[in-house]
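Suppose you are handed only these lines of text.
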Amino acid sequence: MVALALAVTIAACGRSSGIDRRDAARVARGGQLYAAHCAACHGANLEGQPDWRRRLPSGRMPAPPHDDSGHTWHHPDEVLFGITREGLVPGRYAPPGYQSDMPAFGAVLSDDDIRAVLSFIQSRWSQEAWRAREEMLGNRRGG
Ligand code: HEC
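From them, the structure of the protein bound to heme C can be written out as follows.
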């Protein structure tokens, strides 16, 4: 059983980013991790913070939705993974000098946890969002 699970995991990694919205167990675990680590800012229902397009008094941006109404689905898998793991690193995932309230989760969540959370988020996108994402990203989409 363990060997089988491992083989499947390796196969999944070889083929894609390991982010898989069709893997029900992974999506369920990701949902729990999302509720514990992301929902406080991004919303229990992925709706984001109120008025999320308007800059806060601090000059920083509020947390955007992770559902169709946001722009999470515009980004390729490897960028979503990187932002979650490292935060919005200036010069890499954001313009140089950019300041953000998005925490880095690399010390809190394992890489596999991060893939599970992203599997959960992606499981909530509509077919329309997926179609638009595919058009936008083509083969860079990954999972
Ligand atoms: C303390 C609040 C907070 C928590 C907790 C949080 N985020 Fe964020 N997140 C933000 C903010 C604020 C932004 C927007 C940052 C900006 O534009 O400067 C953001 C942006 C993002 C983005 C980029 C979205 C885009 O379209 O550009 C991703 C991906 C993301 N968060 C994933 C997560 C995940 C996954 C979790 C849970 C593991 C999480 N965040 C937890 C505050 C938070």
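What can we learn from it? The CA atoms of residues 8 and 59 lie 45 Å apart. DSSP finds six helices and no strands in the chain.
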